[in-house]
Fold BBS7 protein.
Amino acid sequence: PALERLLHPQVGVTAQKTMRLLPASGKKATQKVVVGDQDGVVTCFGIKKGEAVPVFKTLPGQKISRLELGGALNTPQEKIFVAIGSEVRGFTKRGKQFLSFETNLTESIKAMYISGADLFLCASYIYNHYCDCKDQHYFLSGDKINDVLCLPVDKVNCITPVLACQDRVLRVLQGSDLLYEVELPGPPTVLAHSNGNGGDSGEEIVYGTSDGKLGLTQITGTKAIPRWEIGNEKKRGGILCIDSFDILGDGVKELLVGRDDGMIEIYNFESADDPVLRHDYGLSESIASIQGGCVGKDGYDEILAATYSGWLTGLTTEPVHREGGSGEELKLSQEMQNKISSLRNELEQLQIKVLQERDKYKQSSHSSTAVSSVPAFNVNEKFTLNRDDASYSLILEVQTAIDNVLVQSDVPLDLLDVDKNSAVVSFSSCDSEPNSNFLLATYRCQANTTRLELKVRSIEGQYGTLQAYITPRIQPKTCQVHQYQIKPLSLHQRTHSIDQDRPMNTLMLKGQFSFAEIHSWVVFCLPEVPEKTPAGECITFYFQNTFLGTQLESTYRKGEGFFKSDNISTISILKDVLSKEATKRKINLNISYDVNEESVRHTLKLIHPKLEYQQLLAKKVHLIDALRELQVHEGNVDFLLPKYRSILEEADQLLEEYKRQPAHLERLYGMITDLFIDKFKFKGTNVKTKVPLLLEILDGCDQDGLIAFFDAA
């Protein structure tokens, strides 16, 4: 069916998973909406004749990080539980508070799940299980916990909690112990029971990842069985919320998915293991919560989505417009006309109120006792490395419209094109010498833009800080600065395993340093490493370079560290940065290394196809103008060779690709040059004078000639 949009009331800024629909009670088939916001307010309302009817509203306080429904097992889940700081509060469906449970967590609660008398809570790395508010179990995770879920107790007959962790794994627990880990294709951000009940077995869990992948896995007592997985072919945003509901009315529950780029997706199942995307709808803000149910009118189901800034949007099966006979204009119902006139009145009153408040502010700011107040505003940010194109996405979302964003960096960065970005970008010239200022760009946003996405690509070995100065359209003018670290090995991403058969170079460190100290150096060098020092005496992390596909293994403990990579430049960067960090702390390092000559040839063979492709693309793009001129003069291009005709036919795609990847060829040249210099640096030879000769060979693009030059130099 065609779903039509409805706008419900707005609340404050909302976090992920903070809106639920209460089960329908008594004869009434419509459901009440309950939502918690970052002002600490729990709002419950119903919809009657298109208008919101409040049930209750709590007083403001600390921000609400999660909202869940609970109740005795096998009864309607209509008790409302909210996580505020390190406290859990419970409310009845009428708004009466019946629980205030102050946990023993030292950090704020990030994730919560409730099953009968069992309460599962997670702070950053810590998981706690309580039964009737009494401490039962505790677990310390190896990386940050993003979500928690427990398999349905009535189906699996035991308590099986599942943690979604940032290091791309699900951790399945038994009591306080880790039962096993499930490796995932991306960092999981949200978990949900398949079909709302865990499927027939109760063991099926749907997960969504921060890089937009969706999958279902069966959590048995001994191992996980992957059922299906959907990649993110359309390059959409990360998944924030999932629900199961039969919105298409075919008797089978669909999967409802909300993403951080504002996309709502509906998947239905041709068969149990074959989800198909049926519908999608785009909103302008990230979808923090999604629910399916009957809200606005009895007999008409809808999908309700809560966005970051607190808008509640419904996609309803109810036809909003009633069409007249053929040829007649669309007639609005009396109900709709009344609604429009009441909205107009409300808007006029708000405009008058804004003018009054603005005058009041002007008067108070000019008085002798004036105190300037800086308006606070919330910024939702996400800075992540994309494996597909080895670029960083910086997503900024503000609760109010953005006026402009100034981006500054003290390291060289390439700004890449983003299709969804409608902002106008202008670059300012930088003096990189005295101020280390390599990038200065301003994004001016169109009216009502609350979300901005930027893409940058860094150069490995050059590290520093990227800063974003965010100015929203509010008075008085205010700006917030947000900083993002560009790490020395910034294009590396954590992976579950590496190919041990590749030719590897090894770097070994020994010295009087603690486990915490060497861990802090690794955190400084590489992305996606948990800041907290791992439990135990030794740890191994695996990484892959997203640009080249080379790999890195790092194993370290108190007093020693081992780093293995098939790319000698990676080892060179680590050697330089780690020795610099140790010198800062006055720690003597004994550094030894083992260089594998074969690894240089191996890395060149990995780079060469990319180099060839980019050189060919550049040549084709340079020919386009001349070929187009020929086409205009001659009228047709039949006389051209097929390869030139195909360049003309594909001209727009070629130009688009070239524009999307500026300086790609330069970066590849830079990597090969670094590889050449690093190879001889480990032998104690300076070959910088031979670099011009190397660049000439690169222009020729002959793989054998390139390898021969590396061997002979």
About this structure: Residues 5 and 315 are 5 Å apart (CA to CA). Residues 322-330 have pLDDT under 50 and may be disordered. The chain is about 25% helix and 40% strand.
